[in-house]
Amino acid sequence: MYGSRRKDLLGLLDGSRKEPADDTKKSKWAMKNAKVVTWLPSSVTPEISKGLRSFHYASKYGLT
Predict the structure, then answer these.
(1) Where in the sequence does UniProt note compositional bias of the Basic and acidic residues kind (predicted)?
(2) pTM score, two decimals?
(3) In angstroms, rounded to a whole number, what is the distance separating the alpha carbons of residues 60 and 52?
(4) Mean pLDDT, 10 residues at a time, over the chain (64 residues)?
């Protein structure tokens, strides 16, 4: 189960999981996106983190 969750979040980073148009799915997507946007800057050095703070979408981190 952990692997599928990780893969689901990875899709936000590489851009393969786009923001859905359906409002019911958009809420779940937004929560997962927020998780990644919060987690990634706190997982890297402070110098790198400063450059990541302005992004609101995980896919904008450019990890593709």
Answers:
(1) 1-26
(2) 0.65
(3) 9
(4) 62 86 90 84 80 68 56
